[in-house]
Amino acid sequence: MTESKIEFCSTIGDNCFINGDKYVGGISGYSNNNTSITNSTNLANINATDYVGGVTGIAFYGTKLQNVVNNAKNIIGKKYVGGLIGYSEADISYSSNHNLENKEGIVAGDEYVGGITGINYKMGNISDCFNTSKIVVNVSNGGGITGMNSSNISNTYNIGEIDTNENEAVKVGGICGQNSSESYINSSYNVGNITSKKDVGGIVCSNFGEVSNVFYLETTIKSTGLDKDYSRAENDMKTAIVSNLGEGFTQDENQINSGFPILIWQSNNEVTEGES
């Protein structure tokens, strides 16, 4: 799909299933230059192999996702698996991966697995997004927002549990598993529990780039943390860090996120339970 526009599109129903091999998504399988997907929602469960996403399986530079939501319970694949996009060079904003019914959605795979994207590759941008689904990574590179970041992440948060399924998976973090050189993560936080036999990071496990204004709940890590300076107590996570996170966040006055900070767009649109 090249230079196309999709808007106000949805797949609906928990009994809707999409199965395939590669390049599989709830709205689009393959998105190329100058494609935009806006104001759209996926509820279809997806089971495929590689390049698997709740919205699109793969998205190249020039693709834009804005105000999109994946509400499906299960997004399952092997490599490059994301709540919204499996392999992404896209500009993603004001979007979420969140199961409305029971908050127990799952994004699962072997390598490069994340709540928003499996990998946020060069020229990709993730901003003003959040994930609540459980992330299961069996081999390497898993995170609440992305499995691996090679570009820019800002104004994001994860509350979904991250689990390695008793495997010795490596490079697992609350926001991303690995942050590459010349990449940055800014104004983001994690409160999702992380279970792993290997070292993990409350924010990022293997960091070669830049991180700033990032925080994680001190009780989330059940193995040795690699970014201890970013840990905070629950009360601080709910109150004190808001000013540090910046203008993209506000207090959760209506308790739609268990008291933890929410994104400004959630508050302005009176978003509840992850709706957009």
Overview of the structural elements:
This protein has 276 residues and is mostly beta strands. It has a single domain, classed as Pectate Lyase C-like. Helices cover 5% and strands 50% of the residues. The chain contains three helices and 30 strands. The chain has helices at residues 234-238, 242-245, 264-268; strands at residues 5-7, 10-11, 17-19, 22-25, 28-31, 36-42, 45-47, 50-53, 56-59, 64-70, 74-76, 79-82, 85-88, 91-97, 106-114, 117-120, 125-131, 134-143, 146-149, 152-158, 162-163, 170-173, 176-179, 184-190, 194-195, 204-207, 210-217, 231-232, 249-250, 262-263. Strands 3, 4, 7, 8, 11, 12, 15, 18, 21, 22 and 25 form an eleven-stranded parallel beta sheet that branches. Strands 1, 2, 6, 10, 14, 17, 20, 24, 27 and 28 form a ten-stranded parallel beta sheet that branches. Strands 5-9-13-16-19-23-26 form a seven-stranded parallel beta sheet, with no helix packed on it. The longest helix has 5 residues, at 234-238. It is globular, with a radius of gyration of 16 Å. The model is unreliable at 271-276 (pLDDT under 50).
